[in-house]
Specification:
2 domains; single chain; mainly alpha
């Protein structure tokens, strides 16, 4: 197991126990058609996996700064980062996909990020094929502009990851073009609604999502056409603006998610 102070706080045995629980469950699931193995995870086992996942994500966040920084030649930290993400992906595969669509999208976004940053891209493509529930998110059909934006971006990322031919990548472009056409219809109504949060916060939220949508479109375009040449600079610009928007909207969870997707975009365009 890789060394990190967060693992010392949790305990090495707890991490090993969580991995054993997840591995056992996945084996049972693979065998469910040929035997009567009980596949349910107990509440105690779910808590063990949950605590381990929290520790792994915290360690991953702590190590993000060295993962792709060419100025920091810290191979050991970089290897630890990839290991952390890989272990988080293995644990997340054993968890049920949330029934709430927003939570489901966040769950799958993280699972995709952990897989790519853990260098398990073939595994996550197979996971998407084997889990149709990941695709059953209808947020892009919502009349609420923030949910429609988020759902369409999520749908686009599924196609970016699956990449089954040019059709999947063309779907990304189609999705973002559709959002631009819908913006006039939904944006003003969303910002003028009577909200429990401030209009300023709502405005920052959609600004954040606009930058994420643009980064998603650029990534799809680069995979299709190899342009723009300065793709990394443009991705960095839009993700940084998106993160800034999330911070101003006080959406900490969204900020963290965008940081994961930013790093994932770097791995995805190289794969």
């Amino acid at each position: 197991m890789k060394q990190h102070w967060i693992f010392d706080a949790l305990g090495e045995e707890k991490l090993k126990q969580a991995r054993q629980i997840a591995d056992r469950y996945l084996v049972f699931c693979a065998m469910k058609n040929v035997c009567d193995s009980k596949t349910a995870i107990s509440e105690d086992d779910l808590k063990t996996i949950g605590k381990a996942l929290e520790a792994l994500e915290l360690a991953g966040i702590d190590l993000q700064g060295v993962a792709f920084d060419p100025k920091k030649d810290k191979r050991e930290d970089r290897e630890c980062f990839h290991w952390v993400c890989r272990e988080a992906f293995f644990l997340m595969r054993a968890l049920s996909i949330p029934t709430d669509e927003i939570e489901r999208a966040k769950h799958v976004f993280k699972l995709i990020s952990f897989a790519y940053l853990g260098q398990r891209w073939a595994d996550v493509k197979r996971w998407l094929d084997e889990n149709p529930a990941a695709w059953e998110v209808k947020l892009k059909e919502s009349t609420e502009w923030d949910k429609r934006l988020f759902g369409t971006i999520y749908d686009s990322w599924l196609y970016l990851i699956r990449k089954k031919g040019w059709g999947d990548l063309n779907k990304v472009t189609e999705n973002i073009v559709c959002l631009r056409e819908e913006q006039k219809q939904y944006e003003k109504q969303y910002l003028n609604e009577d909200k429990s949060v401030s209009v300023k916060g709502a405005a920052w939220e959609v600004v954040s999502l606009y930058h994420l949508a643009k980064a998603t479109e650029l990534l799809g375009q680069y995979m299709l056409q190899g342009t723009p040449k300065e793709i990394q600079e443009q991705l960095d610009f839009h993700f940084e603006k998106g993160i800034f928007g999330s911070q101003n909207a006080f959406l900490m969870e969204m900020e963290i998610l965008m940081r994961w997707l930013h790093l994932t975009s770097q791995m995805n365009r190289r794969e």
